[in-house]
Fold this protein.
Amino acid sequence: MSQIISPLAGKPAPASILADIPALLSAYADLRPDASVAAQRVAFGTSGHRGSSLDRSFNAWHILAISQAICDYRTSQGIDGPLFIGVDTHALSQPAFENALEVLAANGVETMIASGGEFTPTPAISHAIVAYNRGRATGLADGIVITPSHNPPDNGGFKYNAINGGPAGTDITAWVQNRANALIEAGLKGVERMPYAQARAASCVHEHDYLNTYVADLANIVDFDLIRGAGVHMGVDPLGGAGVRYWPAIAERYRLDLTVVSDAVDPRFAFMTADWDGKIRMDPSSNYAMQRLIGLKDQYDVAFACDPDHDRHGVVTRSGGLMEPNHYLSVLIDYLFQHRPHWDARAAVGKTVVSTALIDRVVERLGRRLFEVPVGFKWFSDGLLDGSLGFGCEESAGASLLRRDGTAWSTDKDGLVPALLSAEITARRGQDPGEAYAQLTDELGKPFASRVDAAATPAQKAKLSKLSPAQLRTDRLAGAAIEQVLSAAPGNGEAIGGIKVVAADGWFAARPSGTEAIYKIYAESFKSEDHLRRLLQEAQQIVDAALE
């Protein structure tokens, strides 16, 4: 049940595993998907359409079709405001941007591109949509982010953000996905397109200064006066991502003691250390991928990193090295709801069903309401927009929150703000977030958590995604009575695409993978590592029995 760790894990990436960028770009332009092959069709997961040009799953035809489908969707819904678009630093992002702009301009969409061809983080796009739509009832904006997030260098990704600024819901993505696949099946008949040079010069295409607009507004969500006054010495590793030029601008504007440890941008991401499986993956929550910054931890009061589109964060402390995402999120929630007096007293805390139960304990102590939802940040967007959620987070180091005055900031994940808040916590508390976590667990209990993968056939995965509580054949988990069996999230009643089983001192959840022949088991114990191992073993037995 345990992952097999590659001998390359945590070591500098050897030349043998680096992406062949010319081959990748040639495949993007030259290879066409076969709509009769499921793996080559447009498929929107929790974070848009992703794939690799080498596998015919992310090619020019995909992007042309998706872009036209988005234009058609906008027309069907009467969305006629500007579309904000941004790209990250993956090799496939730039050609995908060019193809998207060819279609958007041909359809007459008012399109806002980054000034000077600047890379654009996901939160800067969401922030722009929210800011533009504030106070408007008509002419609303939406957006596109071209990124596969922290996925390997040979991957591409294409996300659509709705008029609420957040990731489009499944009703929207299903519409776009189906329309895009129909266009591919029709040989792109129905796709309006003009040459890139003509599109770039079109009257409906405008440059927008995402960088300075976003950076100038950060003072409304982070207390820079406090950080600067305390003299917090910070380090940041952009991991070669879209925020690489945002960090120096933040340091300069707010006069911070902030060192950018590397400003390298390389589509091969050759500066990375390999992840657990020997692949390059720019994951700021992975100890293996974060070796460069972890090695510098004693040089800073607190340090942090973000993934290529800067919608995820990783915090490195002197006291404990790289923090587990769930650990830092617990500390951050505990801190924010005690130091944001202008937030509505009714504002809830949002978390996904596989996030730590330590958050539940923090929320209960704060006297706040917990809003627990399936995996997918889209479930938080409306609450972050109307202020009914003060904070929303996923266990994979994705979060966003309200401005200091209690109004909306970004309704998609923002990696930069939680990273900067680690310095605010350090400044106010006189202890780094790792030390704050140790104190928090002394008060509320220490969780032991893990995630493992188990083999599953397509039929078993389909059955697991529809598993009901009645199908479980036991009433006990690791020696304790089962208190809850969930197939729908308590916060919004939406299906979690699997099952979650809760007992007094621990829980597990099982979900099928969307891309691999496995299911994922998440487990957490508040007793011990031995108890956690027992939870994981019994979890697999319980699920396997239910799948027979």
